[in-house]
Amino acid sequence: MSIQNKEVKSFFFSQYFSDGLRISLGILLPTLILQQFNQFDLGIALSLGALCISVIDSPGPVLHKRNAMGIGNLCLFIVAVTTGFARLNVFTLGLEVTAFSFLFSMFIVYGNRAASIGTSSLLIMIFMIEKGIKPNEIILYSAEILAGGLWYMLFSLVFFGIRPYRAAQQALGENIEDIVKFLRIKADFYLPETDIDDNYHKLVSQQIQVSQHQDEVRELLFKSRLMVRESTNASRILVLTFVDLVDMFEQIMATHYDYTYIHEKFKDTGILTDIAHTVHQMANELENIGFAILSNTRYKHMVDFNPALEQLKLKIDTIGNTNETSNLVLKKILINLRDLNKEIENIFNYYNSRSSKTLLENNNDVEYSKFVTHQDYEPHVFFDNFTLDSAAFKHALRVSLVCLIGFTVAKFFALGHHSYWVLLTIIVILKPGFSLSKQRNYQRLTGTLAGGFIGVLILVFVHNNDVQFVLMLILMLGTYSFQRLNYVVSVVCMTPYVLILFKFLGVGHLDIVEERVVDTIIGSTIAFLATYLIFPTWEFEQIKESLAEVINSNVNYLIKIAKSITGTPISTTEYKLARKDVYVKSANLSAAFERMTSEPKSKQRNIKDIHKFVVLNHILSSYTATIASEVAVKGMHKTTPDILKLVKKSIAVLNESSKKLGGERIEFTGEKAEPTEAATLTVTDNLLKEQLDFINKISNDIAKIVDVVAPSKSPPVGETF
Fold this sequence. Notes:
Distance between the termini: 60 Å
Shape: globular
Number of domains: 4
Radius of gyration: 28 Å
Order of helices and strands: HHHHHHHHHHHHHHHHHHHHHHHHHHHH
Helix content: over 70%
Number of helices: 28
CATH class of the largest domain: Mainly Alpha
Largest sheet: none
CATH architecture of the largest domain: Up-down Bundle
Number of strands: 0
């Protein structure tokens, strides 16, 4: 199967297409069914309610979807009724737009799903603004919208009830694809022609994707009673596959070397190209397994990499015999490749081995519920953010003021009878941070212009109503399938879909294209200026917090190692929680850095130093993960005082750096007594000492960068151990 063919098939098996199909059917069916009974207007009202509630229907546990859509329907009805009466007077309507824009934008303090409830409520407010409904019809029409919202909620829940494991299976298959891309980037480090700095940038960007999607899978698996508490093979296979996948990602992350040194030392031997080729082949196998999981089929004939690995071993041994320099680093790489091959085989065996039931009986020592974050929904969270120090509060104020401006402009300057498009554009574009707003603004404008052009072509050259209807269905499906995957494509599909829909509704023809484009440009311009002028939020204002958090997570990880080598037992769950925290905080930092690079140059502070920090943090977490896996898996305890001292030195340096950034110190409270000193260092101890020496060096390099980012007048920390 070609790469392009596989990508196309993967899309149609993905949760993106599945979501698009569900949302499209949920919105369209009420109108299509009621039209057969001459109740078209009622069908449109129901579809409008379904459209607003579909915003809340994002990936996650079904229980969370149900609760969120239930609350969303309540908000939908209240806002529809309020707007219906408020619109009778332009001043009360302006007041409502201002107040509701602030209130529902503040929902972001309760997380993304709560924020989607706020967006859903603002959407119905905007759609109701131009509805010419008599006062005595407002309650009834709002009830019809509520009925549409309830219809969509029930339809979505039934959709998931029919195939309860499918969403998790799709998310897992897509996460494997993320890790495959990450693995291929790692493989490119071995190619002599690779630009190492550029490859690091790709690696960090892909790490963000892996981390974000892993969080989605965690939510689906570990917050779902169906997955964690049921003892069916299907649920256990999904959980254990994900656990192994996270372990595999740790192993890939942990395989870090001085690639410049490796290139200089072995570039003429040809071994590096062979290693890169082997890793790419393993990535292909992992991709095939991921595609099988995504498509709910079986991949029965996995490639046996043992002969290729044996050939690599022979070449490495030959290099060691003929070269004056050591080939130890190549042997380490070979060990990593064998471990990676074993992980891939384990995942393959879950789905194909006759002994899969035996394989499923392990891993019961991990407490999965601890690996997901739990949102606090107490009222104090909302009111605690009523301060200009809160990014959410500044965002809500900005949205409120900009919506008032947009409402005023739409009333007095916008074209036609769909001036709510100005407000709609503002609501969609404005995000808490400048870079996200800037990106969404560009995507919305580009997509609207391209989509408007496509819409004009369809309306001018396609006159058959049946063909237009089919095209509208395809574009509608594309709109909702790509809204999370590629927003530009989503808007390109959305604009002609809306134009054809309005043509069928008899509310405009080609003139509506001009109206939509102009209103979008007006809304985009207002939103763009607002991100600069009204309570702007810049990444440099928050980056120190992200730096401190990632340092603290690394300190916590090192403390787990320190405790282990003093003989204190550390559970697998503790190690994995510390590891997860490092990777999540590292991905958050990388995402913040990427957002900073898209901000105006005048707002980019210490950009080169922060980039160095991101790379050094990746190296630090890689080496720490290597040691942690040795200590946790092989039970290496009671080592020498010198080795413990190295760990403590790194902890001290990192703690001091965290303090300079405004973070907290995390003290090592292990045994005070030094472990019994061995007469001679073992080979394992020597290797551990070498790795910890390097971690200490990286920690000091990080400290130097922190001194630049957050200079301190206090004297440098001295030797404390």
